[in-house]
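Let us practice reading a record.
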Amino acid sequence: MGSIRRVEVLRAVVLTVWGALLLFVALTLPLDAFPGEVNPNFPGWAWLVAPLLGLFMVELGRYSLRLAREIREDKLSHQPGPDAFAQAAKAAAYVERWRDAVKGLFFLALPLVMMAGLAIIIAYNWRHGQAGLNRTFYTELAVVAAYLLLRIPFLMLLKKVTGGIAPGRPYRLEADALVFPNLMRVMGGSKNPRWDVRIAFDDLEEIRDLSDAEAAAFLKYQVGPNLSLGAAAAVDQYRYFSHQIPRPRFYAVNALRANGRTLLLRGPDLFYLVAVDGDPREVVAAFEKHRREHPRLPPIPPIPTTV
């Protein structure tokens, strides 16, 4: 259960089950068989919204589950730096992974027990003549049926809208480098090459093509809360905006899109995690080709002064 993929799958399943519980409560609440009484001042429009909240939570859980199941564990390996902050962040990320696993199991069992107990009580009351099927119940069923009929066009519209809200960063591939035009989104910077961030392939040790979900899991469960990295990134951004350095050494911008891709760029003194626009496989191919044509030679050790 400790693997990153399993933990993310568990979290998505928990969200789906809680959505199912909310939908079940919304549909059974107007029944006389439901335990307890409903406030008579409960607004009528709320009966239309209540099942939609459960449906939307189920949809979000299913969406998260699809992203989690596509996580490739082998793409998330990480070797922290030798400093104490990096090692502590790695340890904290490992603890967070197991904490999320244990917490996920608890919050998965809780709604299942609640739903089972509620179903038993409703069934008991129903058998004793307290069914109470009414207009409110049938109205909610109609809302659920209407949603199921309009679900596909609604999700397509939602995907289009959210894709425009959180687009990836554009990039330009050169012969021996990768360029991000106006990576920091400086106002008016798209027309000024000064704000283009250029990363030469010679400055990198690896490039990984990750999904957005993999990138988020990598930061949370592998890198962890690295205080030294965060502080260095903040200082570098200040120096970058003050025109003291050509680019920051550390930068991360995340997204969570259905088919979004994120590039991990790592070098001896460079760490970038950038959600990009488009398919970056050509970037990885160009980098691998550059490495084959320009192999790195290990440094020559100094000649000893004494034998």
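A brief commentary: The mean pLDDT is 86.
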